Fold each of these.
Amino acid sequence: MQAETISPAVSTDLVHPKKHSKLGNLMRELKKNKHYYILMSPYMLIFFAFTVIPVIISIALSFFYFNMLEFPRFIGWQNYSRLFLNDDVFMIAVKNTFLFAVISGPISYIACFIFAWIINELSPKVRAVMTLVFYAPSISGNVFFIWLIVFSGDRYGYLNGFLIKWGVVLEPIQWLTNEKYILPIIMIVQLWLSLGTSFLAFIAGLQTIDKSLIEAGAIDGIRNRWQELWFITLPSMRPQLMFGAVMQITGSFAVADISIALAGFPSVNYAGHTIVTHLMDFGTIRFEMGYASAIATVLFVIMLGTNMLTQKMLRKVGE
Amino acid sequence: MATKTLGVLRAPRKLNRSFTVSFLLFLFLAVFGAFMVLPLIYAINNAFKPLDELFIFPPRFFVRNPTTDNFYDLVALMGNSWVPLSRYIVNTLVITIIGTVGHIILSSAAAYPLAKFRFPGSKVLFSIVVMSLMFTGHVTAIPNYMVMSWLGWINTHASIIIPSLAFPLGLFLMKQFMEQIPDALLEAAKIDGASEYRIYAQIVMPNVKPAWLTLMILQFPALWGSDGGNFIYSENLKTLHYALGQITAGGIARAGVGAAVALILMIVPITLFIISQSNVIQTMATSGMKE
């Protein structure tokens, strides 16, 4: 019933009754669609110059030894073999990054949707305020410092002060230098901060749902809100769900700033080390750009794979 | 349709909730909301704390004796600055406004054909855009600098503005929303003789207003918080964020001024956020996309 609104657009222009040579066909296609190319050209020109070209250079650099002083020297797959065979810290970083991706990624994704879904039902004025409230951490700029005060290892820390006052602990706990606590704390702060891009996209997406679909659903025998959510709301906003998934993947695999702000760089025994902090270590401190590029390329491949899996799962929504 | 809901909850469209469920949801939102808004309240309180309260133990969340000293100190400090404050503000506004408006226009213009039509290269181009989101920016800094210096854009505002016009996020967001526009609407416009450009400007864009208002909320703070990056080194081209950052770099003695700065930097994006959010609601109340 909702198939019309979610199926990808198919242009009828594509149907060719006559057969032409391949090149001739392509030329005709290009000419017929020239308006589309014109519309896209300013964006694509800038996008390729400032995003695609640097990425391609970076991937190429991953096959070089490049210390930013000498001219890059080609070394083939050596960066990669070193990364996988001779770098213990990288393995810690991969483990931590996957923990983020597996735990805080999905939780944050689902939380984004649930909050958006509830907030969307509020009256317009309350909705605007609540959206701001939930988006506040993302909009507040550098707000890590608040968590630094909360989790500070001395008695001045809010959490320690609170626990001591209530007699839970007798002496302050070193939250951010104790291996046991670092990762969970970073995850909590990451979750708290992550209600950003996908949350806003969901809110906007919920507002573009065709109301007549919901009315039609009621006639077709939708009994409760859960059925409405699964059979109407979710399928109708599949484009936004896909967008949110990509945002969550890029966000949770690239955790770095929070780890550095809270646990230091490098963190105690690499307890908060992630792939991106590992990359920053080599890129900005040791000036091994080739190696850092190899790390970035590996991360890129991991994210692409995760994204393919996620998109497959999302296609099942509403079936 | 009889509706019985808690004061703030709007009557659901068809399926009604019981009072208890509404109340529980409200409670749930209130608890999490308090948790989320904490930094905002803390930042506001901090900006009005005198120095002795900023360092007090046990740390206090709310201010006891509010003072505006921090702001006066800030003004006094800025007065000694080599480049007048207005210069930084103008720089920031130029970057932010051109970058945001341009980004919305360019990315949606590129998103429209990708969302609604298939033509040679359309699929490849879109997947390149999505894939580029997954490549971390930390290693592209050097290639980026190389591109900038080939173009001779080092130490110009163009080095900040132009790349921001084509951030991949905007195109992805706009494309996802434009997919939902009914084809019938576009075909009807085409039959009426509208050109592709006109369809884009007069039919597609108004229909995805929530999307580009969202994009504005995302892009604006990103540029507003820009400190000039690696490309700008002339003092009179620097941004407000950079100038205020320099002040707080003064260390612990500037803690009060730092709190004032944090609040000032926050206010503009938040104001914009509130304005645009209430706008989204207004448009959606009056217009509906129907097939």
Amino acid sequence: MLIQSVDLNEGALMWEMRYSLAEYDTATKYQRLGRPKKVSLGDYLWKRGELVQQVTIPLDLLGSKLYLGDFGLTIKDGTSVRIKQQAPYCFCAPERFHGADPSLASDMWSYMCLFAALYLGNNVFYGNGGGSTAFSWVEQLGAMPEQWKGRFWWPEEVNDAWYDHTTTPDPERDLAARIARMRPDTSQAERELVLSVMHKAFCYLPEHRITAEQLLQDPSFRAIIEIYQC
Amino acid sequence: MVPQDGDCPDYGEFVDSDEEGDIEDVSEPLERYDQGLYYPVCIGEVLAGRYRIEHKLGWGGYSTVWMAHDVQYRKDVALKIMIPGEKGEYEYQIQNEILRTVRDTSNLVTHQGSFLLPGHGGNHHRVLVLPLLSPSLGYRAMQLPVTTRVSAVKQLLVALKGLHDVGLVHRGTPSPAILVLDFVFQTKC
């Protein structure tokens, strides 16, 4: 899965530990987690320190509860930021590449990227925020709104065909085809539910995008949850 | 010597020169310690007289995160040690707003307390005391059963709705790229 650590992204998700290690001594904890591997930061700093390799929590220690954390970039809706687009670009809503500020709606686009990654097993969009990322939207969702033409943040990469509504997406490579290809184990009915949910959040115009409250009540979303008895 | 339980304190292992590069490749950039941004920490060190550092949980553009044992209350916690200055203080302020305004914070990682560590050159580092949770799994999340993953997307949506109900946009996790972009922007201005 090509998930990196920044937009609402996988780096902000944290998982419950199934049971506490607090009652064990450090040696026993290291038997379960591995001993820290480290490098000295050197003697020239103002204080001793170590560069330590991050722990890998064994999956069998995880519970089923998920938490959302990392609020270092959290802002009030309506706040204008200097840099609109944000890495990892494959999670960032397309309007932000066209001059729009982050918003509740851009969070919902990013949320659906996470939904897709966890449900499908891979990211739906890709690239470095330039032509390849825009191509991955257009290929799977169709042309972007014409009123966005000329506003893409990376002018050298832009392709006017992205905004041309006279072209139609290749049915072999659109979002429906991707869902079928990545989850061949699912029924046609389930794939249609998933496609319906994804299209409501992968809606280019943020003002028409589904909200968190609406999605929680959405019959297709609830039906997917029901299938997995969550 | 830092306090440690048991007869044989274990502070982890220093790797040989072959492995040093591997650790540097996946860890926080060393120059940020030189610049006084990250607070240098040693395994086994006790912070604020009660939190013994046991492992590293992760790092981001604005912080390093450590697994620690609270020797006072005998529980494990995560310590998020922020960079000095406004950016380092920001998450503390927004978490306080979340704790004050969000109705249900049960799926949100919010602090249980906070303290300041004196840093280099008279700076201070804000430390958030957080519940111990597993950091993000990256590609390993795909090894979880699909029912767990679908349950996760539902829980995530509930958590996000809690934030959105009070008009907060999550935006994401600060990465080193953020600092670079900020720097470039300020330089250009």
